[in-house]
């Protein structure tokens, strides 16, 4: 098997991708992927090599991703808008030997200290952007094609950075079998996507929802994927209308914006499936979407470690406040502190098991052991409950985890960055409610003795070290932080 084969068997003339108003058929996509596969092999990319994709949503991401998988190499999708220090840490963590750089990442790549990523041997640039030591992806796509490598289901396919169920960001190891299993599980559970669909793809491909649900399932069923770099409500509505979009997956902030935008009642008349997940969708926004546009928004639940879908209401079974039912091929338990199942209606930690559950965290056996039981159950760290009909309800997120626009932010990572500023003595970071992003990052900072700190300056410092969604939107300066008798920070008191 090989996940790259998901584009096989579809009519060659059917449109697979629309990117920057350019259509790519399944036949052309297969040719480009095969050519790039050959080009990467000529450059010396081998089975098991880690190839970082610093590329936004577009044709080159899709071609690169499938070509890397087809070689038996490991794709590492990264946020191309991240600053150089964060990309440096991630590239060093995975031991990337090849980096594919899109326009959004060119400036950051130029500021990366290559001595800190010594394993990088090859740099490939997309769309004609010049980098001194880069090879053009256009040249590689024209190389002689080579066949897809047949691999075992447990062969590593993707390293996806996630905050995990607890701890600082780490690379989750997802195999070909993990990713393909979840695609099959969703397809067999419900008809969310089909070959005739046109799918709006603005969820970033460096996020597991964008990668394996929006892209993976769409290509597996032979649908058309409209790739969008960044979200804007007005242009999104134009795209949905002009392309007759039928499936719209999106994080809650996107749907909140849609619910408040000035648009005609028939703005979503072509849309038959509207999906959301990654964070709790405000019920008031769901009501507005229904009343104004007739949109019945289907919520689901998943996480990177589950490739990602665990439950869904996309098949038509919906209940207010619920994230749907468990999809076929996945097992879910809700357990108490001792690991025993709780009764329906009682709350507990959600555990997940199935072939979609990941292999563990890269080079972190202790972290892996904390979340994977000996018999294969994934401890999600999320608190939920089920009702008598089998619908799952989320009550709380993993302890301390902040969810910003569907992205995980772990306070410890932000705190470490702030402590790197010479004027910061102590810091505590928590999530606070936000009307558009679900939550926002808020920091409480104790300045070093005799130091005067400026809030805007400190936020700008964070922006130079972290992705924007991880940066505090508000910083309060305090004399001391609340701690217990052992000195542990009491985040609940801050919140």
TrEMBL record:
UniProt domain AMP-binding enzyme C-terminal: residue ranges: 413-488
Family annotation (Pfam families): AMP-binding, AMP-binding_C
Recorded GO MF terms: CoA-ligase activity
SUPFAM superfamilies for this protein: Acetyl-CoA synthetase-like
Family: Belongs to the ATP-dependent AMP-binding enzyme family.
PANTHER family, A to Z: LONG-CHAIN-FATTY-ACID--COA LIGASE
The protein, known as: Unannotated protein
